[in-house]
Automatic annotation (TrEMBL):
One of its GO terms (biological process) is DNA-templated transcription. Residues 665-867 form the Protein HIRA-like C-terminal domain. Gene3D superfamilies: YVTN repeat-like/Quinoprotein amine dehydrogenase (2.130.10.10). The keyword Phosphoprotein does not apply. It is found in: Nucleus. This is Protein HIR. It comes from Russula ochroleuca.
Length: 928
């Protein structure tokens, strides 16, 4: 083995003085290009640097500087670059940064030259192809899936984002981790994705539906949360995941955990490092235990490298219980990242001390290395087949008709049965892998003036022709007629060679349909006032376009409240027949009025208005602030009900549709079609609830654009026992939305309900029954309640509706105690459903005092155990019955502390309270 540590691979602090040696900054990531000719590094200087690998592993090349050591410096990120990963095709480079952005880079033949603000020279150019926003904190790791179908990114926002590997559009967001996500890797079969997080778990996700397949926690229960990364790796045979930052013996032994496929258990540990393992990286080759024996599961093994915070690197072959080598103190600080070359013979490592090291092996030292074709054959045994890619979706390149050279890298080496020793990934196959000049792309420029269309991602595109899309081709013809092309050519040096003939337009058929040339809206034809269509030039600017910013309808000034309300259409009664020949009146469809208005907030002067034309042919919806029209819209059906919150407005239409707008008038969701006309509508923060004329209850989270639960009928709430006997008919009195999406439905009988999505059932929040004997029932006036005390507000409203019963009625002995305890328990459940945190704590302490006053020891012990949880519970523990230590934002043991103070002050439960206080004190001390 040969070990090298080049001093010229550096991310330096450019702010230092010129007469001083450059200060090394931390290098967080390294990755080798699939052809082995380049590596990319990302560092604390917010830059990505691309280096030639030959000067690193060859002293002759290093001394001659041929090929050049530094090839390119990329400077678009505004924060430290935490991860760099080449696509398997070698065509694109992905980077993730502290600036919350994932950037995709593509080769740019015209971007060579001096780096802005420095004396560095870019030998080759790379341009930002697309910026992928979406993370809300640092992007810590990236991984391309097999065949580059997907790109996964993870970050300190606890999210996993899945992007298309070809269109670069976001496909899925996974947010089921409860801690910083610091590592990600793909199954080489393509069936699973694995992520590792500070919540002390490795989660396995299915790529077919992006749902959780398995969760592994045991090896990480005592793992420290101080590591910068938790980079894990999947073995090339698909059988194992090696995960970093695991421990044995209650956290005193630092290991890497080997997780078996399908069972998702960890029975094997790689032991030996003296500090936490930061990163694991498998060699891309399968190895044979006995090279002379045929390929079989029993004859397969792998090679994996580990980098740890003890400044050492270990390399293991899974057929042996001991590592092949251990390189101790090769760095001055912890190892941040590892990367194997595609031939499996060179391992690159980087450290936070700002240095890079290379471990170069002879084939004899890594015994049993098998060609990549063996891996492809072996992976077929799993029986998982990836769906075929759409035609033309690849990272491969256009063929130049005259030379046959490629202007982009060849197909991914890992899909070929031959190792890519003869390819440099950026030009024609080289006859000699040791050639000392890096092939560089140079664009042949046309001296004539030209207009270049820009693709949807800011990429200059050649016109694409699709055999099966004549209409698409026709729509582009006008734009293409004015477009001239740049013909890329290839040179083996830094000077352009003889120019090549122009590329045919038919050679760009590899571009995916949604990455083709973007067509200006005007080029599809604009209808003039006379009704005739015309083709508009890309650069035409209509004379009636505004010269400054404005709002839709903002030129109108509202002149006071002059709107006259008329009834256009009377309410339509709706009765529903339910089993037992009992008719239940659900709702009458609301009347259609000429004018509706709603004050958006209690404190502001913003108003949402709806004006229905008496002819019924159109409806105008507008948002008024003071006397200014902020926006307006026109709808085809009369509006019958309005709702508004600080973040959105909603308009229910007579035809059963629902439209939602932002404060600027942008439609936040598609037009929703309900089962009937919305008769009741209520909004709170980002939640909207509705009840239709057919009695269906809906609830949506507008911010997340999803339903909180499936539509549910409110008819069971209207089946009063008195209805069938000619008594009073029960109807819906009011509907109120809670910020968490829970509806509060009050019926005329005085009972108030909500829908619990966890229980899939309506639950009673309160009812007049408790007023019959509960000491906890309050009949304070309604205006004394606060916004937070929602349960108290509900009971105040019920008190206004009911008539107190005379106190002369004879009651059983335990009547008051039973009703009081039942009432308080019901209020606790109501506060949980409505997520009234402050109120829950108040009710809990009243409940504890009632138990103490009555001396109910069994109830007290049950309450204590519920709040205390498992005796030996610590953060990060898991089991069959997972105990949640937090309730409505309160730590349960903090609530218990106050409950025990109530018990300790009582006469009958004082000893119980003091005993548990001591136990709680010990438990909380051990947690610290």
């Amino acid at each position: 083995m040969k070990f090298t540590k080049p001093s010229w691979v550096i991310h330096n602090d450019s702010s230092g003085k010129s007469d001083q040696a450059p200060k090394r900054l931390s290098i967080f990531s390294v990755h080798v290009h699939p052809d082995g000719s380049r590596i990319a590094t990302g560092g604390l200087d917010a830059k990505i640097r691309i280096w030639s690998t030959k000067p690193i592993i060859s002293s002759v090349s290093e001394q001659s500087n041929r090929p050049p050591k530094s090839l390119c410096t990329l400077t678009m990120h505004t924060g430290p670059v935490l991860c760099v990963r080449w696509a398997n095709s070698g065509r694109w480079l992905a980077s993730g940064s502290d600036d919350e952005i994932v950037m995709i880079w593509d080769l740019d033949p015209t971007a060579r030259g001096k780096v802005w603000g420095s004396d560095e020279i870019n030998i080759e150019g790379w341009k930002p192809l697309k910026r992928l926003p979406g993370h809300e904190s640092d992007v810590t790791d990236l991984a391309w899936s097999p065949e580059d179908r997907f790109l996964a990114s993870v970050g300190l926002d606890s999210q996993v984002l899945i992007w298309s590997g070809y269109t670069l559009e976001r496909i899925c967001k996974i947010d089921q981790h409860h801690g910083f996500v610091k590592g990600v890797c793909w199954d080489p079969v393509g069936e699973f994705l694995a992520t590792q997080s500070d919540d002390r778990s490795v989660k396995i996700w299915r790529t077919t539906d992006w749902q959780l397949e398995a969760e592994v926690r045991k090896p990480f229960e005592d793992s420290p949360g101080s590591t910068f990364f938790r980079r894990l790796s999947w073995s090339p045979d698909g059988a194992h995941i090696t995960a970093s930052n695991a421990t044995n013996n209650k956290g005193f032994v630092f290991i890497a955990a080997v997780i078996a496929r399908n069972s998702w258990t960890s029975e094997i540990s790689l032991v030996g490092h003296e500090n936490t393992v930061e990163v694991a990286a498998y060699n891309p080759h399968i190895f044979l235990r006995n090279p002379a024996a045929p390929v079989a599961t029993s004859n397969i093994c792998s090679v994996v490298a580990l980098g740890a915070d003890d400044r050492s690197v270990s390399i293991w072959q899974t057929k042996s219980a001991r590592p092949i080598i251990v390189a101790k103190e090769v760095f001055e600080r912890q190892i941040m990242d590892l990367s194997w070359s595609w031939d499996g013979l060179t391992l690159y490592a980087v450290s936070s001390d700002g240095t890079l090291a290379a471990f170069c092996f002879d084939p004899d030292e890594l015994e049993g290395i098998a060609p990549h074709s063996i891996q492809q054959q072996y992976l077929q045994k799993f029986g998982f087949t990836l769906p075929p890619l759409p035609e033309g979706w690849s990272h491969t390149s256009i063929q130049l008709p005259s030379s046959g050279h490629r202007i982009t890298p060849p197909p991914s080496p890992n899909r070929s049965s031959h190792p890519p020793h003869g390819l440099n990934g950026f030009g024609a196959p080289s006859a000699n892998i040791g050639h000392e000049v890096v092939n560089t792309l140079i664009a042949k420029r046309n001296t004539k003036r030209r207009t270049q269309l820009l693709g949807p991602r800011g990429v200059s595109n050649s016109p694409a022709v699709y055999a099966n899309s004549s209409s698409y081709r026709d729509s582009l013809s006008h734009a293409h007629s004015r477009t001239r092309h740049v013909t890329p050519t290839i040179s083996s040096g830094l000077v352009p060679e003889t120019s090549q003939p122009s590329t045919s337009a038919h050679s760009s058929d590899h571009i995916p349909p949604d990455m083709a040339t973007e067509v200006p809206i005007d080029s599809f034809g604009v209808t003039s006032s006379a009704g005739a269509k015309r083709k508009s030039s890309v650069l035409d600017i209509p004379e009636d376009r505004p010269t400054k910013a404005r709002t839709l309808g903002g030129d109108r000034v509202r002149e006071g409240n002059l709107n006259v309300v008329k009834e256009i259409r009377s309410p339509i009664n709706q009765r529903t027949v339910v089993p037992g020949d009992l008719e239940v009146e659900v709702f009458a469809a609301p009347p259609v009025l000429t004018y509706l208005s709603l004050k958006v907030t209690d404190t502001g002067d913003d108003i949402l208005e709806c004006k229905n034309a008496e002819s019924g042919d159109l409806t105008e919806v507008s948002y008024i602030s003071g006397k200014i029209v902020c926006w307006l819209d026109y709808l085809p059906s009369p509006g019958v009900v309005l709702a508004a919150a600080s973040t959105f407005c909603a308009v229910g239409m007579l035809d059963g549709t629902l439209n939602l707008y932002s404060p600027t008038g942008r439609r936040l969701m598609p037009t929703l079609t309900l089962d009937g006309t919305a008769t009741l509508l209520s909004a709170a923060k980002s939640s909207l609830v509705a009840i239709t004329s057919n009695g269906m209850l809906y609830s949506w989270d507008v911010k997340k654009t999803r339903a909180n639960f499936a539509p549910t009928s409110v008819r069971p709430l209207l089946l009063s026992p008195n209805s069938s006997a000619g008594g009073t008919t029960v109807t819906i009195a009011s509907l109120v939305a809670r910020p968490n999406g829970s509806p509060i439905v009050c019926v005329t009988s005085g009972v108030t309900y909500s829908f619990d999505s966890n229980l899939c059932s309506f639950v009673k929040l309160s009812e007049p029954w408790w007023a019959e004997g509960s000491d906890a029932w309050s009949s304070r006036p309604r205006n004394s309640s606060t916004q937070q005390a929602v349960v108290a507000s509900i009971e105040n409203a019920i008190s206004d509706r009911i008539t107190p019963s005379p106190g002369t009625t004879q009651r059983p002995t335990w009547w008051t105690s039973a009703l009081t305890l039942g009432h308080l328990e019901s209020k606790l459940h109501a506060a949980r459903v409505l997520e009234s945190s402050v109120e829950y704590k108040q009710i809990l302490l009243v409940y504890a005092k009632k138990i103490a006053d009555e001396g109910f020891r069994n109830k007290a012990e049950e309450l204590i155990k519920d709040l205390f949880g498992p005796v030996y519970w610590r953060p990060g523990m898991s089991g069959e019955d997972i105990w949640n230590p937090v309730l409505l934002g309160h730590w349960k043991r903090d609530l218990l502390k106050e409950v025990l103070q109530v018990f300790a002050r009582s006469k009958t439960l004082a000893k119980l309270g003091m005993d548990w206080q001591e136990m709680l004190k010990r438990a909380m001390t051990s947690d610290d």
